[in-house]
Here is the input.
Amino acid sequence: MRYTPPRPPTKPLKILQPQGLTFQISREWMIASADKNNTLGVNYHLLNTFISKLGLSPTLTKSHPNYQSLRAYGVIAA
Here is the structure.
């Protein structure tokens, strides 16, 4: 017996879409967000460099409660 894949439904599926919602992004938020992402990326790279140079366990270091506060050090709150 030959296999035939199931056919897609004939009616399109209705996906819930919120109506009346508009999103406005301010320029200040985008700049703060870009700066925040840049700082987080630099801190992440720096922490990974320290972990590898000092021969620390990445799993244990990243699961430490203070790791996230070190990673977010210097981030400007929006």
Observations:
- Residues 27-71 form one domain.
- The chain has a mean pLDDT of 75.
